[in-house]
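BUG: 3D viewer hangs when loading the predicted structure for this chain

Environment: internal workstation, default settings.
Expected: structure renders.
Actual: progress bar stalls at 90%.

Input used:
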Amino acid sequence: MTRLILPLLLVATAGLAADMPAVVTHDATITFDVDSHTVTIVDRVDPGDAGAVQLDAGLTPGGDRGELASESREIDAAGELAYVFTAHQPTDEVQFSRERVGGEITATVGPEGIYLSSGVAWLATVEEAMHAGSFTIDTPAGWYPVMSGRLVAQEENGGRWRTTYEIAAEAPVDGISLVANTYAVTERDHDGVTMRICLLEPDERLRETYLERTAFYLDLYGEMIGPYPYDAFTTVENWFPTGYGMPGWTLLGAQVIRLPFIPYTSFGHEIAHNWWGNSVFVDPGEGNWCEGLTVYCADYEYKRLEGEDQAREYRRNQLKDYAAYVGGHPERDFALREFKARHSGATRAVGYGKSMAIWRMLEVELGRETVLAALQRVYRDFRGKPAAWSDFFAALEAASGRDLMAFKAQWIDRTGAPTITLGEADVRGEAVVFTLHQEGDPYDLHVPVRIATTTGAVDELVRLDAAEKTFRVTAPGATAISVDPDFDVFRHLHASEIEPTLSRVLAAEEWTFAAPTDDLEFQPLAEAFAAAFCECDAPRFTGHGKPEPGGTNVIINPPYEVLMEYAPEEFALEGPIATVAGEEYSVGSFDIVFAADSPHGTTDLIVMVGDPRRLPGYGRRLPHYGKYSYLVFPVEGGRPVRGNWMPRGGPLHAELLP
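Structure tokens produced before the viewer hung:
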């Protein structure tokens, strides 16, 4: 099944099946004519007990030419199906970034490339079916096809290539996608697994980076979860923007694959999906668990390996995402059992961020080894089968000896998150007595508390299971108290705990752009930037070049007085030198972007570009950097300096008087 991968946080629409699904077995020959955009398929189909299969509504068995349509229809399985169809969807409108996915296509065949998605029934199927069998792909010579399964043969005959993949009946897949192009292909063995990379043009640096990272992730997850479920993993470059993952391979757009952070973040996330989603499937009855679990095993695990500070900041960023996309928009919130797939910032914040946080909270309560033992048990017991949240909690209960049904109910079935506030806190002898509050219907929480003392820190895990509760912790020489200092509890952050970030601007439903109005050459470039930023045809400009109160503003090359009105403490401008978070940059050599709290109560975005011809490119780039407060782009190119302003504090910390 096609899955989405994000440059920062990976995305997937996992295979969904409530009971063990039917397996459709194929013996198919798939022939492509790239000049006429046609596909000819001869498929001997065994639908198993289903008796009938589905094809896309535009496809007619018997060799008649059809076109892919949006709905599938049921046909009798006659043993052998033969049909021809045309597929040539345009790819120029496809959009892909961490914040936004749009204009996706399902099928296209042409000289620029071949792509058929499992999201459309181009092969005979049964609803929610698995697939197995033999697939021979006939392409022009030099065209290398990739799909799930084991590559068993490839031969050239008469200017054509015939490539055969086999998917074993005991290890079926939940959908078949196929891509082909004139790739430069490299293979390398790693402990019996074939690592393969297919690039549109030879690139030694890119090739070696991805092969090295593939080996790293195979080893990491093999130890963490269990043996890799396939005989190969293939990394494929695509000519249009994608970030898809299928069983045994991933399809990354040419721009995405070259982003410097992708091999160390999103790429590993996609490999992890071969355990969660592609091997252990998702039972949809309790929602799609696999995205949050994959984030926990991949994106979050990388930060944990870097160090505790990096892991802490990652958890804080997840809470900031929830605050930006959901906190101020309660109508966007939903229970995790309702999560199916990511299609917005809000669905990502819940389906990925909140779901990941559950595993961290379990880790805090039960211990990391207990959580990993449960994951290994589920992988061992449910490999090739669907699993639900209940199956994971059963394994967690077995590993821990704890009853976790109340925990499951409040985090999987309930919408929202708790808000915790520190009330009175006093030193009484050698102890600290403090009160914690919750807003609304209280959660049952295990809350970390850190008390600073004259001899070190005292860490305590307290149970907050009421709207208000008072605790006493022995801590001689106490000087300060911090509640959830490492952001281990999934909760609503207080406004003073959150610094301005690009995501708070990107989360707005609409924007007003302000740009200088006295430069006729500047205006069309500013409009191109705005159109790319908001992905709209007619972005709204103020008309007078200054920000407006009330809405979310994106302010391009503001006048000095406007810039200083927005500038946070960590930003200064003196002549041609800008100081950002203590570092100096020449405004002629660097472009600067930062988010700042508006005097009108919103978070606005400041864009400072020396040469406006660079503006349109930034409109496409900025959505990749949502979690940051500021970006400093070298004019000559390269990775931007990025960081965050300091938050102002919050009502979960208090200094203590002796």
